[in-house]
Amino acid sequence: MANITLAHGSGGRLMHELIRKKILGVYGNPVLNRMADAAVLELDKKRIAFTTDSFVVKPLIFKGGDIGKLAVCGTVNDLAVSGALPLYISCSLIIEEGLSEGLLMRFIASMKKEARTAGVEVVTGDIKVVEKGNCDGIFINTSGIGVVKYSRELSVRRIKPGDKVIINGTIADHGTAVMLARNDLGFKSGPKSDCASLNGLILMVLNKCSNVKFMRDPTRGGVAAVMNEIVEDAPFGIQLFEDKIPISKETASVCEILGIEPLQMANEGKVIAIVGPQDAGKALRIMKKHSLGRRGAIIGEVTKDFKGRVVLKTKVGGERIVDMPVLEVLPRIC
Amino acid sequence: MKYIDEFRDLKLAKNLSAKIEKLARGRGRYNFMEVCGTHTNTFYRFGLAKLLPENIRLISGPGCPVCVTDASYIDSAITLAGSGDTIITTFGDMIKVPGSKSSLYRERAKGRNIRIVYSSLDALRIAEENPSKDVIFLGVGFETTAPTVAMAIIEAKKRRVRNFFVYSAHKLIPPAMTAILKDKNVALDGFILPAHVSSIIGADGYKFLKKFNIPGVIAGFEPLDMLQGILLLVMDVNSGKAGIVNEYNRVVHKRGNKRAQEVMQRIFAPCDSVWRGIGRIPKSGLAIRGEFSDFDAEKRFGVKKVKIPIDRRCLCGEVIKGVKLPEDCRLFRKVCTPDNPKGPCMVSSEGTCGIHFRYK
């Protein structure tokens, strides 16, 4: 068997294949096989969403956030896109010996602040300390549970041609900010991570639009990975419109210089919603009223053309495939 | 973005597309080679095929430095990475390229100290910060990159940095174009000439094309630049002209960048070089001159390049020349895939074989 590389954790094709072909083969069950951001479970006649995520970001502090804030937002968003009201989270800390207590307390304070913003409570946790060199300062695992309030199932199975693809704002900000911080590429300025808890915005949309069919937060692998996961094995395709996709000037400039595909870059404060055409305008209007949705836009639509593929209509009127990312996104040579 | 959005204007693109369609209508096939990988990127990124008539065929040339890097170079770089006292520094996309058995990406997963940098000066900084390690920069690229690497060597000498080395696999574009044109099976009608390389060597750098009676347009990397370049090439072919047109005159000058040329010539001397999928091309590479051998990783570490036989079944050489299609190759899809590429056209996600693999 081959070795695991960083690409297996980058949210692209290799990670997808590792989960589908290897892990589900051993662990598969009807709930897990759905591969949703959170498992929706029926417990004593109540629908509960349950999710877990580990945060291993390097560097630990980046423009717009830190690992503590990220650890709360990531889990809250996984619950929210599953139609759940996030309630409680756990926090498990794996700390490398030598980490300063001051830094640790900064991350704990970030978590507390973000948990308050998101309306969740950290109710259980764990601490392990590993030898120097065995982790990058600190790894944080958070799990979360919430109550599913939305009565309709949010599932790829409900998507049909004609549905619209909506995003709540600019893409690629988190991935670009972290890449600049991580690779020390000499940029004096750059974008800020969009790291934010989206449960408030999502709840507003779900409460008022019955035709929201599917939601996902485009984290690792970005918009490209989410779009490709939706069309995989589906009897439809997705058309995206480049001129409608919001991107900040700073992020666009950095991506241009480094030759990076913004559609493949990670986001931590974005949600993609697939909404029936009758509710799409309304869903967008609701998003735009929220502080995290001001630059929201309808960026594409589900179509019976090019089945199983994601096609981008480019700004100059051309067309191209948007593929699932394969390896880590890396700066080009020239 | 100013100076970028203007070159992505929908209306202008439609106008250019209509003009090309009109001029090319009813004529035979036009085989144009975009020499440079960044043009290939523009072509696919903006979906320009949709804006061109079917009788215009774009062929991806040898101008992706990463793709044409021979597997033996990757193998040697992996050997260099094997020592615990070594830090390998490289441009990001190099680490994906497979050698004969492994890649830098896989070696990094095994714990080798391989770091991504954005410029050779970053590699020099790493050397200064790690005086107890040997820092080797993988010098890969064309005329565009070579002067910056030359500057890093000059700086290293000036600052007396003794643990910084360059493993040079730099290549030159004109000899590769000449090799392609000398092939009697070649079927090209014109070149879209590389923008960045041209900014260094200037329009005069393509004087050799006169001998081959083939037109070339130096075009910028924006989609409108490329469409304009294709329009100019169609006009040249229709009128039987075979000169060099500089569409990218906002950056490229007739004689190029003299300072960059001087720096490059001070540090490097032309040498024969092996191009992945094509083979050895005389005087198409750049070796570090003897007086700077203290910075030459090849000499300092006694790199022994093991010759990896070219798989005779691989048709990338023919695909690059526009003589064959990927589907004509017996390795295509069966043995040669994006995860296990054999030739340069499959190594790059923008190479002709990679594109055909994923989208056709």
Characterization of this structure:
The complex is a heterodimer of chains A (334) and B (360). Chain A is an alpha+beta fold. Chain A contains 9 helices and 14 strands. Chain A has a 7-stranded mixed beta sheet with strand order 9-11-8-12-10-13-14. A 5-stranded mixed beta sheet of chain A has the order 1-2-7-5-6, with helices on one face. A two-stranded antiparallel sheet of chain A has the order 3-4. Chain B is α/β, with parallel strands linked by helices and 360 residues long. Chain B has 14 helices and 11 strands. In chain B, the strands form 3 sheets. Chain B has a 5-stranded parallel beta sheet with strand order 2-1-7-8-9. In chain B, helix 2 (37-45) links the parallel strand 1 and strand 2. In chain B, helix 1 runs parallel beside helix 9 and helix 6 (146-158) packs across helix 10 (258-267). The longest helix of chain B is centred in the middle third of the chain and has 17 residues, at 223-239. In chain B, 53% of the residues are buried. The mean pLDDT of chain B is 92. Classes of the chains: A alpha+beta (334), B alpha/beta (360). The A-B interface holds A 2-7, 183-186, 243, 249, 252-253, 256, 258-259, 312-321, 323, 326-327, 330-334 and B 1, 4, 8-10, 13-14, 17, 37-38, 41, 44-51, 65-66, 91-96, 105-106, 108-110, 116-119, 122, 140-142, 144-145, 196, 223-224, 227, 338-339, 349, 358-359.
Keywords:
heterodimer; A: 334 residues; alpha+beta; seven-stranded mixed beta sheet; 14 strands; 31% helix; globular; B: 360 residues; alpha/beta; four-stranded parallel beta sheet; 36% helix; 17% strand
